[in-house]
Amino acid sequence: PDSSPWWRSAVVYQVYPRSFCDSNTDGMGDIPGITSKLDYLHRLGVDVVWLSPVYRSPQDDNGYDISDYTDIEPAFGTLADLDALIAGLHDRGMKLVMDLVVNHTSDEHPWFVESRSSTDNPKRDWYVWRPPREGFTGGEPGAEPTNWESAFSTSAWEWDETTGAYYLHLFTRKQPDLNWENPEVRQEVYRMMNWWVDRGIDGFRMDVINLISKPGELTDLPVPPGRRRAPSLGVVANGHRMHEFLAEMHEAVLSRRPMITVGEMPGATVEDARLVTDPRRRELDMVFTFEHVNLDSAPGGTKFDLQDLPLPVLKQNLAHWQEGLAGVGWNSLYWDNHDQPRAVSRFGDDSAEHRVASAKTLASVLHLHQGTPYVYQGEELGMTNANFSEIAQYQDVETLNYHADALSLGLEAERVMASLAARSRDNARTPMQWDDSSQAGFTGGVPWLTVNPNYTEINAAAQVDDPHSVFSHYRALIALRHENPVLVDGTFALLLPDHAQLWAFTRTLATDGGTRTVLLLANCSSAPVELPSDGLPDLAGATLLLGTHGDGGGQTLAAWESRILALA
Ligand code: TEU
């Protein structure tokens, strides 16, 4: 196999189409809007654009509920618009990754419409159907086949009158899970994927792809204290046939030409990821881990049960993945996406004083690790959380369901709103801030989700030509990765693992010209810090490749200062 595939030195940019750019004033972003911004993305220097779903969809989960895999949702545009986007990207030397959502479909997908129509329909077995619990009448409380909770606070089972049975949905009730045990389902998915490959796309981001192999028997699970039902994603994740299915998909689709593939895998361990990304096993190129984005939630609770995250815990987790995949598989690197709060608000300091420096320093930390970095739209501007204070401001189904459920369980309203402000997915979904005109230049109409009022200060127009902006820092970092093989292939070593403020590590690569070492020094705190005299390499003769605070000499790092240094 190719020892150095192209995506190892690539940087991926995620577009959330709804919130990126609206070309027709309906308040929702669309594909022509994305195409109109390709020069912006080219200037940033990214190699790949990953589009969150634009397929036909009732939009119950903003497009992650697909009713036609080979057509475009009219609000986003047409297939011709998508072809134009592909051409525009390819003209500029960039590639397109499509989101592949095949753990489930929409309940309005013709496959499910057929499946639910009768017990002897040929597609009945394409989904996961179960009778009511013994001794119960279907539809009554407690009759669900198991006590599982979906990812969105409801039961994972929906009662269906027509045939008197329940279907499984690990997400909303409008997202029934496909039955991957059925070979016809798998062949139909591969056929659809090949249709997209033939259309000219360059890869897939695979939604919750480690949930496709369900356990042979679905049984009750322990219910955590204070909860009504048992969280279910954990037992379904990384099921016994997952590797087999991924290898089969590789053979049927992914091996056809060089592509980039990334599997979203909640609950995957380093060991799971190592198997999936080992090129000899011919499964996927990389996975999205969830470990580092779960560290600031209390164990045993939901993602809305907040807890403090000490820096050593975070950096040791990333180091664990670096070491675990080194020399075998490959990491993806991300701070945020359309499901996560904004990086600068979560891991940085989004106060007026520290926002710019902390956004830059978080970027330097992430991009200096080994792996393929993913930039989520607006992250390159240092966009912040939404700061919503009223439930009416939110739109996300996970947020609204959690809010209702938490209140009905007796949680204090103020605490629930504070959790939403910290963790709601809508934090990442407010419209992209292009300029300081009305609605941040996102739309000429009324945006589907409120624009963050800080757009007058934080916007692309103010940053693209400013050498000190967050945008310019991302641009420099991306260029640095393209120009320095040590940042792609160099060995990772964490320094000062227990230091509470400093994040420090080296990347080292032996080449014909000698050994090259790059050191990252990052103050991940809002107070200055002295460099310790022990535990760091000799800095004499080091050159600054990229810093956040001017020339960056001296023994003290300012709040959120970072330095990328080439050692002598
Ligand atoms: O998310 C997968 C997933 O595990 C989510 O439950 C995620 O953990 C949660 O949003 C974090 O709060 C993927 C998509 O990225 C997400 O947008 C979809 O809602 C979900 O799958 C269902 O398709």
From TrEMBL:
Keyword tags: Glycosidase, Hydrolase
GO biological-process terms attached to the record: oligosaccharide catabolic process
Keyword Hydrolase: yes
SUPFAM superfamilies for the chain: (Trans)glycosidases, Glycosyl hydrolase domain
Pfam families (alphabetical): Alpha-amylase (PF00128)
InterPro entries, alphabetized: GH, GH13_cat_dom, Glyco_hydro_b, O16G_dom_2
Keyword Oxidoreductase: no
EC number: 3.2.1.10
Name of the protein in its database record: Oligo-1,6-glucosidase
Species for this entry: Microlunatus kandeliicorticis
